[in-house]
């Protein structure tokens, strides 16, 4: 696996691949890779001639009081995992390479899809995500890009960007990977104390209960939300940021009685750590 | 020449061209084609296997009190000219095709380059231009895109977008085409009364005088600006919007004494019609 830090070197690699008619799969990450990322790299490996993984803690998607500085960075471990999963090239640029000017060119998806859920408390987050992904899509000229459904809203924002700007990339959305006890894999799980980690299990547990109710026929939106809210609130260490439900895909508002598929998503703090999790309620 | 209105048809055409390894040159226009556009299409013809011209009066680059509705539309004439200049395909989409959602994904170049000159009075203009050009670049997968230096600021904004987002397109900037009497070709010239048209000649005349002074060694910024301002102000029908000067390329602020190349640009109203013109002062 090639490890590359410079844009020029990446572009040379991409140009060679393109000339040979090879398909390129992309997995963009902020590093601190875990089994969730690994599943994306493996999926890309299956469907493309070439797999590129990026490791870049993107400053523009962090708010001023968020964990940009603290975000775990461990490129050596990441390289080993990416290589083991079959990546051909790992691209780990410096922030100055990705943002050459202080005055930015932004790609911004506006409206409902970026205003709900995480958009309520992280107003600049998705602008940063869309901008950096647009850059990586252009840099790698990827045919397919792989995202985990743990960041469900992110996948829908990027889907909107790709459609609206007619980008020539197919987004492949992959299921959430969980620990054996149900906790969704996240690079931020390392922040959790032992106690917090145990308390955080309420997320996957309550979402599973809502799914169960849905599968048994419950279609009332508030009833489903209440199952999750009540169970999380019973956990003393939890501090709910949101428990919300939207149409999936697209995240449009739902009627009181759900008809198609829905996303039930939560963001909850345990101590200083904000975790997100979700479940897709599939009508069939 | 193929005339095409649907995105699906355009994408099929582009895919076929790409499969055959053909290079694609793009000329994006708002129609009402004149010799300026023709020179761009001819330049694209020389440098590419395939030439695509777009005709689209882009609603998002017009302010609420601007001439979106009045903007001249004449697709038949445009088609004939584009074909005569060697275009292979003319793409004329409906606004609903280019903007499928009411909630937009914007591409926005921020900072100095979009705040000066036309950015002062047209605050949303360049966001609309950048967004629609990003869409056309992605739709056509063009290798080169051609823009006239009459819209000098637009060329620099797009250059910034392409660099910042690492777009895989080369911008080719072409000289201003003028009427025999010096008036810069513009689709908006049709708005001018005979008297206004005559009065508007002061733009090219005054810019030529500034260039003359520059070539004779004048390097004082204010002195050069004053030549142009005074001469335009002497014309009773003129109403100056701006007369400004910046570094070229890039449009950074200039010191009082100019060292490299500079853009001297003007926007002036004659009656209801706002015209722009400029000259590049080249140090060598």
From TrEMBL, chains A, B:
- Which amino acids does the record list as binding beta-alanine? 61
Tell me its family. Belongs to the pantothenate synthetase family.
What is a biological process (GO) this protein takes part in? Answer: pantothenate biosynthetic process
Further information: The reaction proceeds by a bi uni uni bi ping pong mechanism.
Cellular compartment(s): Cytoplasm
Q: Which CDD domains match?
A: PanC (cd00560)
The catalytic activity, as recorded, is: (R)-pantoate + beta-alanine + ATP = (R)-pantothenate + AMP + diphosphate + H(+)
EC number(s) stated in the UniProt entry for this protein: 6.3.2.1
Q: Does the keyword Protein biosynthesis apply?
A: no
Sorted UniProt keywords = ATP-binding, Cytoplasm, Ligase, Nucleotide-binding, Pantothenate biosynthesis
Pfam assignment, any one? Pantoate_ligase
Its function?
A: Catalyzes the condensation of pantoate with beta-alanine in an ATP-dependent reaction via a pantoyl-adenylate intermediate.
What name has this protein been given in UniProt?
Answer: Pantothenate synthetase
> Pathway membership of this protein?
Cofactor biosynthesis; (R)-pantothenate biosynthesis; (R)-pantothenate from (R)-pantoate and beta-alanine: step 1/1
Principal localization reads cytoplasm
Q: Which residues cross the membrane?
A: none
Q: Where does (R)-pantoate bind?
A: 61, 154
């Amino acid at each position: 696996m090639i490890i590359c830090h410079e844009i020029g070197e990446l572009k040379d690699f991409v140009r060679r691949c393109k000339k040979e008619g090879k398909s390129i799969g992309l997995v963009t990450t902020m590093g601190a890779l875990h089994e969730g990322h690994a599943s994306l790299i493996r999926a890309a490996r299956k469907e493309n001639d070439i797999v590129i993984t990026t490791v870049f803690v993107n400053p523009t998607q962090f708010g001023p009081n968020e964990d940009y500085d603290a975000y775990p960075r461990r490129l050596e471990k990441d390289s080993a995992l990416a290589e083991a999963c079959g990546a051909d090239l790992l691209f780990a640029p410096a922030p100055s390479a990705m943002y050459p000017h202080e005055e930015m060119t932004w790609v911004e998806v506006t409206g409902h899809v970026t205003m709900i859920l995480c958009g309520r408390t992280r107003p600049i987050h998705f602008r940063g995500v869309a901008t950096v992904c647009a850059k990586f899509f252009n840099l790698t000229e990827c045919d397919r890009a792989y995202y985990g459904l743990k960041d469900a809203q992110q996948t829908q924002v990027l889907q909107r960007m790709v459609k609206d700007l007619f980008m020539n990339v197919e987004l492949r959305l992959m299921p959430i990977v969980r620990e054996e006890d149900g906790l969704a894999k996240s690079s931020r799980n390392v922040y959790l104390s032992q106690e917090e980690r145990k308390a955080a299990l309420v997320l996957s547990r309550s979402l599973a209960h809502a799914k169960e109710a849905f599968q048994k026929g419950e279609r009332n939106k508030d009833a489903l939300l209440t199952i999750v809210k009540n169970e999380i609130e019973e956990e003393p260490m939890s501090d709910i940021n949101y428990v919300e439900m939207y149409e999936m895909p697209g995240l449009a508002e739902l009627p009181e009685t759900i008809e198609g598929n829905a996303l039930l998503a939560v963001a909850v703090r345990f101590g200083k750590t904000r975790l997100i999790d979700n479940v897709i309620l599939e009508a069939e």
